[in-house]
Amino acid sequence: MREGTRLGFILLLTPLLLWLSLLILIPHVDMFLVSIRERVGVGKYDISLANYRTFWGEPLYLWTFARTAVMSILATIITFLIAFPVSYYIAKIARGRLQSALFLACLIPFWVSELVRTFGWMILLRETGVFSGLLQWLGLAEGPVEMLYNDAAIMVGLVYTSMLFMVVPLVTTLESLDDAVIEAGYDLGGNGWSVLREIVLPHAKPGIVSGSIVVFMLSLGNYLTPTMLGGKDSLWFTELIYSQFIVRFNWELGAAFGFMLLLLSSLIVWGMLRLTGETLEETMG
Amino acid sequence: MAPDLECVSLTKRFDGMTAVDDVSFSVAPGSFFSILGPSGCGKTTIMRMIAGFLDPSAGDIRIKGRSVLNVPPNKRPVNMVFQHLALFPMMNVADNIGYGLRRAGLPKAEIARKVDEALERIGLPGIGARRVDELSGGQKQRVAIARCMVLEPDVLLLDEPLGALDLKLREHMKIELKKLQAEFDTTFVYITHDQSEALVMSDQVAVMNRGRFEQVGTARDLYYRPETAFVAGFVGDSNRWPGRVERIEGETLALRTDDGMLMLGATHGRALSVGDRVQMFVRPEAIRVARDAAELARFDNRIEGTVTSLLFNGAASRILVRHATGGGEIEVALPQSGEFADLGEGDRIVVGWSGAQGNCFPATGQDGAPDAERSDA
């Protein structure tokens, strides 16, 4: 009997261990090893921190690094500001069929691939696109307007892509808030704003934090949206990694970049958790 | 003195159905008023209209003489203790109690003082820093009341707040609530479907059914002098016998029940005539049991029968007695003084009660009967 349970435990654990070790642990260890070696001759490598020195020594890399972080944080904030009223409406105001219909409406865009969705935005925003045409037709613009290839276009794409990942945890936490608690807030003299600040937001905090973490990480690691909507001038850190690996065949520097990105996202998520007083277990559990 | 709360022809229609139908009542300052009724009778709707979460379709609500119809819930001088209390789980006890004071913009030091005072009053000093989910059911209850009472409302509404507690604690909290009401000297309006809560605590009880008040009175009035068949069936337990009037002499009437028993009852001033279909209500505790018919000589109703069931429930034990000739069953309270301790099923027994205890109401067809069944709920 004891033997049996033990075997079962091992068998159940095996897929998880394989997943963790093959797809996460081993590649990262290898990546780290690659990032700390320096080519000194043909097929000859030394251990050194030269790649990291290159990163810190080149303003363009640092600038792109900081820009990616700030833009991702901004995308997270904007996503939250749009998703919160939507989630509140779905969770607390809409009832029955309307509720499920609205939730489905948030899900539908994810039935097409990210690539197609991004092309959709390009059709809308490009010089000969729908918005440009509309503005000219209304007489608001003289000639064609180019709305693609700038930071605003990237932001639109990032927010659009991330919306669902903010809406789902928010709807879940808001639904668990008893309506009577909100009513009690009003009954005891609160107005809309104070009920939101003292009751709804504190209750939704775990959902806000987990949604924000997911959206932030998705934005930080996004490659497609910044590349397609941002064009040449809008650099994103993942593009730098891509170009080191694929264009320049400089795996060592690319690996170092990858590690810096991992460090950055860990640092910002940690900071976010500290700031809100949540723990990772509470948020993800 | 103007009543603290006055509802005038209060009506609420939801699409196609009338939840509250032309209800008027007033509650004297400092009194404990209960609305008692089965679930779905509209009592919660009345409560939510008073609190301001629903707008009445017609009628007026006045608090201390002033209409509050156009006052939003957060500005009304009433506060509500919710069914599941609705304490704020994200705050500790002191912040819960201080919430309303903070909203009113009081200085911090005064809030702290008032919160401590309130905790003292509910008998839980020093628990301010605890989290809400660390409290027991009874403590939560008291905190929920304190949270409202620090605001010194004119009227405190309580929406079945004891429903979630277990039986022992509920019994205890009934007394506690009554004490708290005296302590704070505030008007309480309490809604419940549990008659014992309403009867024990209230100065006045309104029995509600299908959106209307059936009777408003003291607990004794409702128990001893029910004005409608519904009240007779809903408040306390009753034997209910439908039948036909055979004779009437002044207040006394003779009734032939549908299952063949002949018994005497009283009209209590209601207009009834020979041949009318009536329902007679007799409380199990108004019926005496004896082994010998001679002991019951002073009662005008005496029925011999056999015991068909013993329903032991401590002090509230009952027996079911089957009428010797007819088929009817009579529920009788069994005295626990020892003399019937050896009573068994199948034993022959005599039961008797005074005709004045038999309360007769004209049978209204479909009305009354199904609702009366719920009386034990």
Automatic annotation (TrEMBL), chain A:
InterPro entries given in the database record: MetI-like, MetI-like_sf
Family: Belongs to the binding-protein-dependent transport system permease family. CysTW subfamily.
Name by which UniProt lists this protein: Spermidine/putrescine transport system permease protein
Keyword GTP-binding: no
Cellular component terms per the entry's GO annotation: plasma membrane
Membrane topology: Multi-pass membrane protein
Keyword list, A-Z: Cell membrane, Membrane, Transmembrane, Transmembrane helix, Transport
Keyword presence, Cell membrane: yes
Main subcellular location of this protein, as a coarse class: membrane
Superkingdom of the source species: Bacteria
UniProt xrefs under Pfam families: BPD_transp_1
Parts of the chain that traverse the membrane: 7-26, 60-84, 152-171, 207-225, 253-273
Taxonomic source organism: Jhaorihella thermophila
Limits of the ABC transmembrane type-1 domain: 65-272
Gene Ontology BP annotations: transmembrane transport
Localization: Cell membrane
TrEMBL record, chain B:
SMART domains in the record: AAA
Gene Ontology MF terms: ATP binding; ATP hydrolysis activity; transmembrane transporter activity
Top-rank lineage group of the source organism: Bacteria
Entry keywords, A to Z: ATP-binding, Nucleotide-binding, Transport
Transmembrane regions: none
A Pfam family hit: ABC_tran
Domain ABC transporter: 5-235
Name this protein carries in UniProt: Spermidine/putrescine transport system ATP-binding protein
The keyword ATP-binding belongs to this UniProt entry's keyword annotation: yes
GO cellular component terms listed in the entry, alphabetical order: ATP-binding cassette (ABC) transporter complex
Lineage: Bacteria, Pseudomonadati, Pseudomonadota, Alphaproteobacteria, Rhodobacterales
A GO biological process held by the record: quaternary ammonium group transport
InterPro entries: AAA+_ATPase, ABC_SmlMolc_Importer, ABC_transporter-like_ATP-bd, ABC_transporter-like_CS, Mo/tungstate-bd_C_term_dom, P-loop_NTPase, Transp-assoc_OB_typ2
